[in-house]
Amino acid sequence: MLSKVVNLFKLKMIKKLISISSTVALFSLAFPVGAVPALNLPDAASDNAAVRYLGEKVDPATHELVQGYAIVHYRSANASARASKARAPKCYGFLANGAKWKSVEPWFVNPSNGRGLGGSYVLSNLASNVSKWEDATDGTLGNGGANVLGDGYFATGTLVADTVSPDNLNEVYFANVADPGAIAVTIVWGIFSGPTFNRKLVEWDQVYDDFDYDWSASGELGKMDFENIATHELGHSVGLADLYNTCTEETMYGYADYGETKKRDLNSGDVQGMNAMY
Questions:
Q1: C-alpha closest to that of 50 among 255, 264, 205, 238
Q2: Of the candidates 76, 116, 70, which has an alpha carbon nearest to the alpha carbon of residue 95?
Q3: Which residue from 49, 153, 197, 229 lies 20 to 30 Å from 24 (Cα-Cα)?
Q4: What would the pLDDT profile of 169-207 be if each residue is shown by its tens digit?
């Protein structure tokens, strides 16, 4: 197997030549279960364990100082003692005002998992969920919208979420998230402080826990629905924050549970937030 760097470099070089649909046919789910290291997050600095500060590092692409955050998605039964209860005036919120994507980058997924989700499904569903958020950029669903997160591609090597510093690769994979009750984690690097016009996002990674949770493509009881959770997680990737108030029908509501599917589609607050940001 070629190294991660070589594989991702080659994929970047052909990203304009191969569509997602044709790429799907070229790969199969053939990665050893258990080969991916567990994701360990820093301890929470307060009672708001849903957001972990990762520190300030130099972006290797631009040499700017950027900050990192890991946003943890907990199951409803575990969330009450883990996340802020602060109320928001609107049914959307931002990681930081003005912190959005100002360039379009590809993203890469290793779909290997121990819960039976097919590799082609994982990639195509993620791409579909990205399109939902992009469709909302103009405030109206159904007419396209702006390109925000770019296209997705398979990666055949082990991916590692960047909790120490960014590496300029946007990565998605399954692994054990070593944090009790965590369903998934999205890590975002960017400039979140200073003048609003200077803020931006520069990288995102996602890890879905297939150690503690079963996953489903059809909303099965007793399993986490992948589309439901992934649509929420991608909201963080585009710059939206969790909601912990009465906005329980929004995709960005911070809690989830087994068999839940209502986060598959964006609600009015999600659309408003995306439109306000982009």
A1: 255
A2: 70
A3: 229
A4: 999 999 999 988 899 999 999 999 999 999 999 999 999
How many structural domains compose the chain? 1
Residue 39 three-state SS: strand
203: its two tokens: 């990288």
Distance of CA 65 to the CA centre of its chain: 22
Phi then psi dihedrals of residue 68, to 5 deg: -120, 145
Domain that holds residue 205: 4-277
Residues listed for the chain: 278
Token output for 241: 């924050």
Q: What region does 17 belong to: left with phi over 0, alpha with psi -120 to 50, or beta?
A: alpha
What are the tokens at 189?
């690097």
Residue 215 Cα distances to 22, 176, 227, angstroms: 25, 13, 10
Rounded CA-CA distance 81/270 in Å is 25
Residue 27 has phi, psi (to 5 degrees) of -125, 155
Take residue 3 and report the two structure tokens written for it: 């190294």
Residue 266 is inside which H or E element, if any?
none
| Encoded tokens for 259 | 């068999």
Give the whole-angstrom CA distance, residue 267 versus residue 69. Answer: 25
Beta pairing partners, 201 = 101, 190
The pLDDT tens digits of the residues spanning 136-160 come to 999 999 999 999 999 999 998 899 9
Distance CA 226, CA 251 (A): 13
Q: β-strands 182-191, 51-58: how paired?
A: unpaired
Give the CA count within 13 Å in the CB-facing half-sphere of 110: 26
- If we measure between CA atoms, which residue out of 238, 160, 202, 243 comes closest to residue 56? 202
* Burial grade of 134 (CB within 10 A; 0-12, 13-18, 19 or more): buried
Task: Give the predicted TM-score (pTM) of the model.
Answer: 0.85
